């Protein structure tokens, strides 16, 4: 679902039934990273999310750009080291070429598979 402001209010309608979360980040937009962190913090504190071990995949898009932040800087900027109760992964990606997309989806699929297997 889009991260555009007018759509964010719709996100919580999907929290109850979701098995994983994908954030697509423009890794070349340093200012926008602050907004992403705010939205991520709100999301992981939501009652439908906070007590679940949902995997979070971050696609760091536009990694081919000269201005792109590294995965380490993105993790630091988002405070991912403080997320201890949910598996997370940053996949460097380029939406135009598809680079990094398969790797990210495979990681998320494996995490969801493990989550479902441990429930049964």
TrEMBL record:
GO molecular function: GTP binding; GTPase activity
Keyword Phosphoprotein appears in the UniProt entry: no
Transmembrane segments: none
InterPro entries: P-loop_NTPase, Small_GTPase_ARF, Small_GTPase_ARF/SAR
Keyword Acyltransferase: no
PROSITE patterns xref list: ARF
Database matches in SUPFAM superfamilies: P-loop containing nucleoside triphosphate hydrolases
Binding site residues for GTP: 3, 61-64
Sorted UniProt keywords: GTP-binding, Nucleotide-binding
Name assigned to this protein: ADP-ribosylation factor-like protein 6
Species whose genome carries this gene: Phaedon cochleariae (Mustard beetle)
